[in-house]
Amino acid sequence: MCGLDKQTVRWTEKELNGQAQRVATCGTMSILRPINSSVPQRSVLAPFLIDIFINHLDDGTECTLIKFTDDTKVGVVADKPDDCAASQRHLD
């Protein structure tokens, strides 16, 4: 629940359930299809949900993570050969 009260969680779930999308290409539209996963684009919820999804990526690591919505970079200072092996274990 990420520290949210039950009413906020229920509202968020209600907003995400029943979402559908279609694709347009060359002037032709597909039929509406339900969205089973993902965060709706251009939604007021998108920044909030993405923050929840990536918030715990660095739990338990000794590396530096630079987190973006669609990309994560791992950084480590390797002063000796063992540091490289430790960083690889974190990635694994």
Structure summary:
The protein has 3 helices and 6 strands. With 92 residues, the chain is α+β, with helices and mostly antiparallel strands.
Write the layout of secondary structure elements.
Elements: H1 6-16, E1 20-21, E2 24-25, E3 28-29, E4 33-34, H2 46-54, E5 64-67, E6 72-75, H3 81-91
Antiparallel strand pairs: 1-4, 2-3, 5-6
General description of the model:
With 92 residues, the chain is of the alpha+beta class. The protein has a domain at 39-92. The chain has 3 helices and 6 strands, in the order αββββαββα. It has helices spanning 6-16, 46-54, 81-91; strands at 20-21, 24-25, 28-29, 33-34, 64-67, 72-75. The strands form 3 sheets. A two-stranded antiparallel ribbon has the order 1-4. It has a two-stranded antiparallel sheet with strand order 2-3. The protein has a two-stranded antiparallel ribbon with strand order 5-6. A hairpin with a 2-residue loop joins β2 (24-25) and β3 (28-29). The longest helix is centred in the N-terminal third of the chain and has 11 residues, at 6-16. The mean pLDDT is 76.
